[in-house]
Known about the structure:
Blueprint: H1 2-6, H2 9-35, H3 42-63, H4 65-84, E1 88-90, E2 93-95, H5 97-114, H6 118-133, H7 135-144, E3 154-163, H8 167-180, E4 185-192, E5 197-204, H9 211-222, E6 227-236
Antiparallel strand pairs: 1-2, 3-5, 3-6, 4-5
Helix pairs in contact: 2-3, 2-5, 2-6, 3-4, 3-5, 4-5, 5-6, 8-9
Amino acid sequence: MSFLKTFELWSFLDSVLSLGAAFVLGTLIGAERQYRQRTAGLRTNVLVAVGAAAFVDLAARIAGNQEAMRVVANVVTGVGFLGAGVIMKEGLNVRGLNTAATLWCSAAVGCFTGADMLAEAMLLTFIIIAGNTLLRPVANFIDRIPLDERRSEVSYEVRVTVDTDAIPDLREKLIELLEQAKYPVSDVEEGPAADDTSLLVAKLVSTAVEPAELDAVTDRLAALPGVRHATWESTTEE
């Protein structure tokens, strides 16, 4: 039987240790994901870690370390496709990125154990769990910090609702008042509004403004004949 020819006790015990370590470490990573009810939880992370370990261990036993490195490269690519399956887009929001990254790291743990680098695998497992737990309060704290628009990439628009027949004069006046306030305009768009009115939208070149200055400009615009309403707004760029 081929089994009797290929079976080597010490090599088998080495595989048992590698796959067993991948199972334990994958369980530690997956337990945290399962507790937080993520799409890829306990079983998925265990299977990713054990699968990566099995492929690397098999390649190393059959063809040596050089072939094992090629398998590692293919594991990285394959898990990338697997991680894409847990990423979901809901409108402007994207969910599952952290879960996909955790799967990717679980595969790295499996590769370490498959290559018999157990100490490195345990270190990486600790870092993964720490990143998903200890850094969570830090991320929440940062999210609660108010956005400093003067230091962020923010686009600004001045929106003026005007009588349609007054568009030519008010368009020039809009640009003039903004330039006087040192806010150059990159473009002015026109569009229909309600009834016999139109909307002028001036996009500013500047990415940092003083709110009080723009308030003053819109107040002056609102006082002009033919202007129904004037305001400004900011949008954070992705």
